Structure prediction request, 181 residues.
Amino acid sequence: MSTSSLRNDHNLIEKVLSSMKATVSLLKDGKVVPESILLQTIDFTKNFVDVCHHGKEEETLFPALAQTGMPTKMGPIARMLLEHQITKEIASKIEESSKIYITNGNSEELIHNIEQYIQHVTDHLYKENNRLFMMADSRLESYSDQIDKSLTETEKNKLNELGKTREYYENIVEQLSKDQN
Ligand SMILES: [Fe+2]
Ligand SMILES: [Fe+2]
Prediction:
């Protein structure tokens, strides 16, 4: 399938969303959330999600769909691009409110922003998994090997830019999933 690599990314993102839910519960119970958890979550959202995963969709999948005649200024691609921008904005808000929490323990903004992120990204992943990726898998069926290669290439370039590896982010996800128990 053309979207296998992107669906694998979604699985990692979903694990981080579930760790973020656990963070919100701790904060709501007035428990202390270690700075390391917040920093790993921020690294994952700002870099793996915004740079690497969105880069793969925006620079490889969406242009391939555009070549099949799918419009880019309206419809699902335009909608997904807008949602990527919103994802990025909420991630910056999480970073800002984490600093406040780390400095003075005030968690109100941080709880609000993490909850907003979980809701927005859950909806976004649902739309991609069940609509856009279904369309992509059928429209791009005959080029799936080529698309898969391009996605791997874009991923490599993006992670190089970040000076990180996929294993590094997989470890972060594993760490965050463990910490939540
Ligand atoms: Fe997306
Ligand atoms: Fe996605």
Summary: The chain has one domain: 4-179.
